[in-house]
Amino acid sequence: MPAHLIDGKAIATRLIEHITAAVSDLRAAHDLQPGLAVVLVGDDPASQVYVRNKARQTAAAGMRSFEHVLPASTTQAQLLAVVRQLNRDPGVHGILVQLPLPSHLAEDEVIEAIDPAKDVDGFHPINVGRLSIGAPALVPCTPYGCSLLLRSVQPDPAGQHAVIVGRSNIVGKPMAQLLLALNCTVTIAHSRTRDLPALARSADILVAAVGRPEMVRGDWIKPGACVIDVGINRVPAAEPGKTRLVGDVAFAEAAEVAGAITPVPGGVGPMTIACLLRNTVIAACRVRGIGLPVDF
Ligand code: GUN
User: Fold this and answer.
1) Whose CA is nearest to atom 11 of ligand 1?
2) Backbone phi, then psi, for 295, in 5-degree steps?
3) Is 96 close to ligand 1, i.e. is its CB under 6 Å away?
4) Pairing with 23, which of 162, 265, 291, 293 sits 20 to 30 Å away (CA)?
């Protein structure tokens, strides 16, 4: 039986509606308009598209959006000065520095310069540590979005074996913490893992976050498993000169075996920005000592 399709687009739309209503309430009841600042260094076309999209959706949800587009020649000191100025700005509740940065800039130092209370990416070591000990933290958006998609089909995945393919700081490692917090038994697989297909076949929940087009094949999947595909890879299409997006999972094969699966596009992608807006509202409420809206 073909898998249930987890509709990330619809789930993200509902979440954004919820966030938009919460923002409207915060403005009316507390005169608080959450603000998100996005910093882009250089002219990478994909990053430009992401940043424009973030700014548009932030404003559409009723929040303030601040865009700082800096030239590729920006120095480390100049970038740190922008981050510190945003740290001091009371109208800015969330700061996101778009990654990757040009190679002459030190990403770690920039991330650590962001006020942890405004770190809506959840990349600052304080938030990474807080997540790992189960303390209130700003949680990285993509893995949090994945956990919402999983819970849309399995409200309580306790006891299930979750295998995460990929050990990045942005997705793999925080995903492991979130699944652990949901009482899953978690394995992180990576490029040095032995017999990855066999390990993947032992997964009740399989999260693919490696950035390799269609690497996870249908015969890697345990019948009935929940498959979350984080990959967004642009590959040549059948038609000459055209391209198409595929995930890290060979979708058609996997959908024959899995119980539930996220598509690409329309799965994890739309959730990331919704979770970014959510984190900005959380950061704004925390700084003003306002309790979070119910169900947030
Ligand atoms: N580049 C790709 N994904 C992300 C993300 O989640 N946050 C930031 N800051 N940059 C990214």
Assistant:
1) 99
2) 65, 25
3) yes
4) 265
